[in-house]
Amino acid sequence: MPIDQDSVITALRECYDPEIPVNIVDLGLIYEVRIDPVPPEAGEGETVEVDMTLTAPGCPSSGYISQQVKQRLEQMPGVRAATVNVVWSPPWGPERISAEGKKKLGIE
């Protein structure tokens, strides 16, 4: 089953920072998604690599959030492996929050 950007983003909407009641996509934490087919000799499936950030460099939930993202992606049919890269550039800011996220946070 082929994986595409939309299906990855939909899956990532199920991941949350435990301290914020908005998913990581609407928080603007996902910067890039790359999907690469696995070579035929390695078996079936695709690899998914995600570049994401956190709301603050000292976020106490960083390990939890990264692991949650990796596990959710690897549960998707057609995904053989997932890699999560936490990046700090560009820095996250509240302007990255989607309109839906702002509404949930009451900061419309």
Residues in β-strands, percent: 15-25%
Mean pLDDT: 92
Report the sheet with the most strands, covering strand number, pairing sense and barrel closure: 3 strands, mixed
Indicate the CATH architecture: 2-Layer Sandwich
Number of helices: 3
**The CATH topology:** GMP Synthetase, Chain A, domain 3
Percentage of residues assigned to helices: 25-40%
Distance between the termini: 38 Å
- What is the radius of gyration? 14 Å
Number of strands: 3
Looking at this structure, what is the CATH superfamily? Fe-S cluster assembly (FSCA)
Q: Which blocks of ≥5 consecutive residues have pLDDT under 50?
A: none
| N-to-C order of helices and strands | HEEHEH
How many domains? 1
What strand line-up does the widest sheet have?
1-2-3
Give the overall form: elongated
Helix-strand makeup class: alpha+beta
The level 1 CATH classification is Alpha Beta
Structural features, described:
It is a single chain. With 108 residues, the protein is an alpha+beta fold. It has a single domain, classed as GMP Synthetase, Chain A, domain 3, CATH 3.30.300. 26% of the residues lie in helices and 21% in strands. It has a 3-stranded mixed β-sheet with strand order 1-2-3, with helices on one face. The protein is elongated and about 50 Å long.
